[in-house]
């Protein structure tokens, strides 16, 4: 060994690395787990009925965000916003029928940005809205295994089962579910988990951005029978909603359907059991991915995050089901992020939004700061989940031709339906289930003025503003 070389330099040159040109650390990988219609009814969020051991396991490895909000409670608008980091007022995607790039043709979507920075990218399952998956470019882009039972098939099977049992259960509106005799891997989400695991193993030697899109608990609630066996109607406690709850809510804010509003108590409990069964089945597929991370020893160089694309109602406000409201159950959704060297087994009470994913992941992985995004990187919250942060999160939804715009602070939710004269104000400090609309209370005038200022000026909500 030359006396002019240190031992480190000699070792580097022996492996083909020039003296003084040691390679920089490899970029972090990203494993993205997107779940369709997943609300916060998870064990790690405090639900004592739902069994989600694998999502709970991920929460222990990272930060659970307790005030995390989608920007639109519907698949296509929500996913377009999180993939572009542009709010719905810029994407102009307000339903499931308009292609994501209609008004943002040149936008570089999240996985495309990673690809442009040297990453292998792949997705299996639903990441963009299903019919528009080609709006986002990946190195590998695959749909879930064929064989998904659609709503019509599930309703038909449910009807036959009811007839064989001699009737009595009824069909609750258009909520449908079906137990199968399949093994997990024979279901579409099971196939997605297996295929994602294969892609991770095959591409683990290079930086990757791999996304798993799980469909359950989206309707119809289809899962192997063993998951349905975990839940019985007597385990379910229905919301204890005040009789006058709807009296002060603007009708335009509601999405009741006649059939679902008129469900019997047993029907409602059975529907909630089916949603939980589909959630627990999905959780088992998350476990397949976490086991792959363990087996390949990837936790030290991979960011893993799981989220619901929006929330989902389970009979709140006298018969609300599904999404498409700006009430807490639809606007809020789970978010858990585990990143190397960051906090573990921590809960964050600060506000984050889906438009924040893009800049956060770019910063975590050491990529150049993307330009023109609406989101704010919340990397500081992964180090200190209790630190002061943004003042508000924003969710919008269109009912008919009217756009409902909602601003959520840590204490309040304020919503306007086209005009300040049709509004809602809920104080979560004493009314976390949003039963009392205070928008017409003169005592709240000053609070409303402050919230209106935030509603109309999102830049004022940014950290430090």
What does this structure look like?
- It is a single chain.
- The chain is of the alpha/beta class and 465 residues long.
- The chain has a single domain, classed as Alkaline Phosphatase, subunit A (3-Layer(aba) Sandwich).
- Helices cover 30% and strands 19% of the residues.
- The strands form four sheets. Strands 4-3-6-1-8-11-2-12 form an eight-stranded mixed sheet, with helices on both faces. Strands 13-14-15-16 form a four-stranded antiparallel sheet.
Distance between the termini: 58 Å
Q: Which second-level CATH architecture applies?
A: 3-Layer(aba) Sandwich
How many separate structural domains? 1
* CATH topology (fold) name: Alkaline Phosphatase, subunit A
Strand proportion, as a percent range, falls in: 15-25%
Helix-and-strand structural type? alpha/beta
Helix content: 25-40%
The major sheet is characterized as: 8 strands, mixed
Low-confidence stretches: 1-23, 165-171
- On the 0 to 100 scale, the average pLDDT is 92
Order of strands in the sheet with most strands: 4-3-6-1-8-11-2-12
For the record, what is the CATH homologous superfamily label?
Answer: Alkaline Phosphatase, subunit A
Shape: globular
Please count the beta strands (DSSP E, at least 2 residues each): 16
Main features:
disordered N terminus; Alkaline Phosphatase, subunit A; 16 strands; 465 residues; alpha/beta; 8-stranded mixed beta sheet
Q: What would a concise description of this structure say?
A:
With 465 residues, the chain is α/β, with parallel strands linked by helices. Helix content is 30%, strand content 19%. The protein has helices spanning 7-14, 53-61, 75-84, 88-91, 110-116, 151-164, 188-202, 225-228, 258-261, 265-295, 316-319, 328-331, 357-364, 379-383, 445-456; strands at 29-35, 63-69, 120-125, 140-142, 177-180, 208-214, 221-224, 302-308, 313-315, 320-322, 335-338, 346-353, 393-399, 402-408, 412-417, 423-427.
């Amino acid at each position: 060994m030359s006396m002019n070389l240190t031992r480190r330099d000699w070792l580097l040159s022996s492996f083909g690395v020039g003296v003084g040109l040691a390679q920089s650390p490899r970029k972090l990988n990203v494993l993205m787990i997107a779940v369709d219609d997943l609300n916060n009814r998870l064990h790690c969020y405090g639900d004592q009925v739902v069994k989600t051991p694998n999502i709970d396991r991920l929460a222990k490895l990272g930060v659970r965000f307790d005030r995390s909000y989608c920007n639109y409670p519907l698949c296509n608008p929500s996913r377009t916003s999180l993939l572009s980091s542009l709010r719905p007022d810029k994407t102009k995607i307000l339903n499931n029928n308009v292609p994501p790039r209609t008004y943002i043709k040149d936008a570089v979507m999240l996985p495309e940005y990673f690809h442009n920075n040297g990453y292998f990218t792949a997705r299996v399952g639903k990441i963009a809205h299903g019919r528009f998956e080609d709006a986002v470019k990946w190195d590998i882009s695959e749909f879930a295994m064929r064989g998904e039972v659609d709503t019509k098939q599930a309703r038909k099977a449910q009807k036959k089962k009811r007839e064989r049992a001699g009737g009595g259960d009824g069909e609750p509106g258009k909520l449908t579910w079906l137990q199968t005799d399949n093994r997990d891997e024979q279901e579409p989400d099971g196939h997605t988990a297996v295929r994602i695991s294969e892609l991770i193993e095959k591409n683990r030697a290079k930086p990757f951005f791999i996304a798993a899109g799980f469909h359950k608990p989206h309707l119809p609630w289809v899962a192997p029978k063993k998951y349905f066996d975990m839940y019985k109607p007597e385990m379910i406690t229905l919301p204890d909603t005040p009789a006058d709850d709807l009296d002060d809510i603007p009708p335009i804010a509601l999405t009741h359907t006649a059939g679902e509003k008129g469900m019997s108590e047993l029907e409602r409990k059975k529907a909630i059991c089916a949603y939980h069964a589909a959630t627990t089945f999905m959780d088992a597929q998350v476990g397949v991915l976490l086991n792959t991370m363990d087996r390949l020893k990837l936790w030290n160089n991979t960011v893993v995050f799981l989220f619901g694309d929006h929330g989902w109602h389970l009979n709140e406000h006298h018969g609300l089901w599904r999404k498409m409201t700006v009430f807490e159950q639809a606007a809020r959704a789970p978010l858990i992020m585990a990143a190397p060297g960051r906090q573990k087994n921590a809960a964050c009470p600060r506000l984050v939004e889906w438009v924040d994913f893009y800049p956060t992941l770019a910063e975590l992985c050491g990529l150049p700061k993307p330009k023109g995004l609406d989101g704010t990187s919340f990397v500081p919250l992964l180090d200190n989940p209790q630190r002061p942060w943004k003042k508000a999160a924003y969710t919008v939804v269109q009912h008919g031709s009217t756009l409902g715009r909602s601003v959520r602070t840590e204490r309040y939710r304020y919503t306007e339906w086209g005009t300040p004269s049709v509004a809602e104000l809920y104080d979560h400090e004493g009314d976390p289930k949003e039963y009392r609309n205070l928008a017409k209370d003169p005592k709240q005038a000053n609070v409303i003025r402050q919230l209106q200022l935030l509603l109309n000026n999102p830049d004022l909500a940014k950290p430090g503003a």
